[in-house]
Specification:
Number of domains: 3
Largest sheet: 4 strands, antiparallel
Shape: elongated
Strand order of the largest sheet: 4-3-6-7
Order of helices and strands: HHEEEEEHEEHHEHEHH
CATH class of the largest domain: Mainly Beta
Helix content: 40-55%
CATH architecture of the largest domain: Sandwich
Number of helices: 8
């Protein structure tokens, strides 16, 4: 890069002054060249200063963008519960890359259930880590339809991020988008656990006592076909078919075996043909 020292600038100015005092042709040529060189130097200096300023501004913008991307991003919303599609949860979640501090939520009108109970939200959530959420069950859509409660609730989420910078975002919670929903039930881990509890409750009532709910009657099918009349006796145990039926219940789930049992009753007798 071409540069000009301070001494060179002084020499150019002296040439210009000398040309003005003793106006010879050569002096005028020298003065003109000096003036042109000085103008070029000034322009180059201004360009360099502008480049330095733009570079500094670009660095500041990059830093601001990096800081903005690193800030927490907290939102409040409502969504169907993972347990039951009829139940709607209220959620406050941090989708940002850093922790959100002093999270506060305000809403109007007050959030209430169909029964009129207030949905309690903490006045301050001290910290929400990246991906962390606070959740509470709000209401059930079927009950909400008949409650006459307002659909739209408007609120605001406030929180602090890096360098204690304060953030605020508007929230609109609207029940109307959930009242006309249709969906397919999907039975997951919760449904399986509920079925196992029902099976455990049912098996707890079983007993091998003749007077208990579970008793096994063994019949001689060949004797009945021969016309000799039924022969029966109380069995001390459970037939293999019943053991297989119980195994199917545990392996495939109570709901599936129950639906099969509606069309084909579980084996409770030991017919021998």
């Amino acid at each position: 890069m071409w540069t000009m020292r301070l001494g060179d600038t002084n020499d150019l100015l002296e040439d210009i002054v000398q040309a003005l005092e003793d106006p010879l042709a050569t002096d005028w040529i020298t003065a003109g060249a000096a003036a042109l060189t000085l103008i070029v130097a000034v322009v180059a200096l201004g360009y360099a200063i502008r480049q330095v300023g733009e570079a500094k501004k670009a660095r500041e913008q990059t830093r601001e963008l990096e800081t903005a991307r690193s800030q927490p991003y907290v939102v409040a919303y409502m969504e169907p519960s993972a347990v039951n599609n009829l139940a709607i949860d209220f959620v406050i979640k941090n989708y940002g890359q850093t922790a959100a501090m002093e999270v506060k939520f305000s809403v109007d009108p007050t959030m209430t259930t169909s029964n009129g109970d207030e949905v309690r939200v903490p006045a301050v959530i001290p910290l929400l880590a990246p991906g962390q959420e606070w959740r509470v069950s709000w209401d059930v859509t079927a009950a909400r339809l008949r409650s006459g409660k307002p659909d739209v609730h408007k609120g605001r989420v406030r929180f602090k991020g890096l360098e204690d910078k304060a953030f605020s975002s508007e929230v609109v919670l609207d029940w109307s988008i959930y009242k006309s929903r249709r969906w397919f039930d999907s039975y997951g881990v919760h449904a399986g656990a509920q079925a196992l509890r029902e099976i455990r409750s049912l098996m707890a009532k079983w007993t091998e006592s003749p007077s208990g709910p579970l008793s096994v009657i063994v019949r001689d099918g060949d004797a009945m076909d021969a016309g000799s009349g039924p022969k029966s006796s109380e069995s001390d145990g459970i037939e293999p078919q019943q053991v297989e039926y119980l195994a199917d219940m545990l392996e495939h789930g109570y709901a599936e075996v129950e639906s099969t049992a509606r069309t084909e009753a579980p084996p409770t007798t030991g017919d021998q043909r």
